[in-house]
Each structure stands twice: as C-alpha cells, then as structure tokens.
Amino acid sequence: MNGSESDDLDHLFSETVRETMDGSVYGAWRSIRDAEAVPLSFGFPYPESFPNGELVSAAESLFEYEGDRALQYGGGEYADTLPEVIAEQARDRGIDCTTAQIHLTNGATNAIDTVCQTFLDPGDAVFVEAPTFMGALRLFRNYDVDVEGCEMDTEGLDVAALADELAAREAAGAALPKLLYTVPNFHNPTGVTLSADRRRRLCELAETYDFLVLEDDPYGQLRYEGAEPPPIRALDDAGRVIRANTFSKTIAPGVRTGWIIAEESFVEQFDRINAGGEPSYTRGLIARYAEDGRLDRAIEELRAGYSERRDRMLESLAERMPPGTWWSEPEGGFFVWVEFPEGVDAEAMLPAAIDEGVTYLPGSFFYADDGGTRNARLSFSHASPAEIDEGIAALATAVRAETPALEADD
Ligand SMILES: Cc1ncc(COP(=O)(O)O)c(C=O)c1O
C-alpha cells in the first residue's frame, strides 16, 4: 500500500493525534538533520564518548556469569541490582533513597511520559520553563493539557515571578498547576542552573499551592566547574518532587535506560502502569558495566571531553560574534543559549546559516507559545572542538549578513 492510500485512514487516529499530527516543527527538524553542516543543533553525545569496548566486555562477563538467565524474562541477578546502583548514586548526591522509591524506565523521555500517564487529565494545567525541552513539550501535547510557560533568567526558573503568578491565579479562581516540569541543572535549551535558594522556595510553593514538581536531571553529573546545588528532590520534605534521570548522557542514548525517584506510593503506580516493557538484559548489562567504579571513571572522562568543547565554543563566540550578541555561560551540560542582535529572526536565518556551514535549533522550537525568535540553542556536545570553531565562524558570518547596519557601526 502506498502513502496516499494510507492517508485515507487518518480518521482512525485518536482525536489527540489528529489535532497534533501536522507537526511543522518536525518538518523543520528534518531539514536541519539532513544538512551537511557542522551540527550544533543536536544534543547528541560525541561518538568517541561511547564505551563500545567496555560494553562488549561487560556483555561477555554477564553471559559468563548468568548464562541463559541474562536473556530470560526479568533477567538475571545483575538486572536486579541496577536499582541499588542508582539508589547509591542518588544518596551520594544527598537524596535519601531506597530501591522501593525507584522505578526504572526506557530513558528520561519514558520517565516523563510515565509521570504524565499517572497524574495528568485533559485540561490540567502544567507549568514549564519558557523555554523548555522540546521533547517534554511534545509529550505534554499528547495529554491535552494546558501548558503554561514560566519566566526564566540566568539563575533558572524565576521563582518570585512564579509565586506572583500562582497568587494571582488563586485570587482569580483560575486553574493552579497540577505539575511543574523543570530542568534545574544546565537546562535544555539555555544551559543555566537553578540556584539553591530558588530550589527551596519552589518546594515551599509546591506545598502551598498543592502541585507536583517533575525534576528532570539528565545533565547534573556533567558539571565542569562550580559547586553543585542540592537536587530539588533532596530538599523535598513533602514527597512532591519526582525526579527523572537517564543513562543517555553518561553511558549512551542507545541503552534507553532511565529511572524515576519518587514516593513509594507513586512508584507502585508507575510499576503497575508500565508493567511488561522492561529491557532486563540491558539493565543487567548496565549494572555489570557500572561495577567497580567504572561508571564514575567514565563520567570523569566525559567531563574532560565536554568541558574542552564548551570552552572552545565560549572562546569562539567571544572571538567571532558581532556586537549585540549575548550568550549563556553554562557550568556543565551540553548547551549554550544565544540571543542574536536586534532584528535577527533565528528561524528565518537558519537556511542561510546552513549554507554557511552550521546548523542550530531556533529558540522558537522550545516555547509552548510565542517566544525565542532572536534565540538559538547551540550544542557543543556532538561536534569536535575544531568543528565547533568552524561552526561558530559560519554562524557569525550568517549573523553579520543579517545585520549590515550593526556592521557599519562596528
Ligand atoms: C532535559 C532532557 N530530558 C530528557 C532528555 C531525553 O533523555 P532520554 O534519552 O533518556 O530519553 C533529554 C535529552 O535530550 C533532555 O535534554
């Protein structure tokens, strides 16, 4: 059957799919992906960071030790130990955590989806940072909820503005959020980190206004400088913070393994809702790989590789970008957020930038509503340091071509 015939079956899609399927953003995403240019667009790890050889050895020793149990339903002993590996990591970061408070997922995306399935009804209000992770926005759209963007600044979510908004909503009898989704460390897309004081205040607001906080922290262990604020979950006395995490950035996205840390009563529901899809072999493999401090050593190496790339991007931006350009200076993670000079539309400029030899993601992709027209997310995670420099040079050329008046003043 060819494509045009299958279009006739569109009426069989659910109402939510029919309402969201046009996906213009996805079309733009495609063209960026296919471009032959320095990829500063995607938050992919750089390929040499993958522990191919180590995973092969871990697989061999897993089969040696477990035999056929490694591939059986439920997996062998190593699969069972993964929650303890995760709980130990969490305790090291100040989170009081038992294995009964852990639900394993197929990555952080699946963790967010599981939280949505468990808590959200159509019409619920969900607060997100503006801008926020595109993947989360896409998931929230599937649940027919009202997504509301909250202001941010260089210290992350503007919690004082959030407090005002909540008070105003309460006074007006308007809907309060059921869930607030945040990426507190090296935020995607802006790279900024939520300050410790704001984390505390956020927990208080969740308590006062009766909502849950979903703390999505894929980048927290990839810190290249500065002190780490406590995870929001570590500051939560009321059980309202649900923490999502993943091995996508510390091992590889292809292992598709993540987890949720939350109250035991929540975990019981996550387990019930998601039963049957566990990739137990992969879980055993990760537990075997992580043994003897190997994962910690790998994270140290990743920090070196990424911080070199970040430094190169920041140096290159400082050297090459025209006046009137601002960018964030992340202490970790994968992303730098750029604000171009007045008059530049990042989405409109993208084809010219691709012709010059660089791709980026326009800021507008990261907003539930309008916003980010002058912004772009640049990822330093995938390209080599030399390519990053080349990409920023191409970007600077594209921006200068858009701002001839500024050049005249320069
Ligand atoms: C904030 C955030 N959450 C979740 C994900 C996806 O993680 P996973 O690959 O584990 O689904 C990403 C990765 O791009 C991310 O930046």
From TrEMBL:
An individual GO BP term: alpha-amino acid metabolic process
Cross-referenced InterPro entries: Aminotransferase_I/II_large (IPR004839), Class-I_PLP-dep_aminotransf (IPR050859), PyrdxlP-dep_Trfase (IPR015424), PyrdxlP-dep_Trfase_major (IPR015421), PyrdxlP-dep_Trfase_small (IPR015422)
Stretches assigned to the Aminotransferase class I/classII large domain: 64-395
SUPFAM superfamilies: PLP-dependent transferases (SSF53383)
One Pfam family named in its UniProt record: Aminotran_1_2
Entry keywords, A to Z: Aminotransferase, Pyridoxal phosphate, Transferase
Top-level taxon of origin: Archaea
Gene Ontology MF, one: transaminase activity
Keyword hit for Iron: no
Cofactor(s) the protein requires to work: pyridoxal 5'-phosphate
Family: Belongs to the class-I pyridoxal-phosphate-dependent aminotransferase family.
Subunit note: Homodimer.
Protein's name according to its UniProt entry: GntR family transcriptional regulator
Organism: Halorubrum halodurans
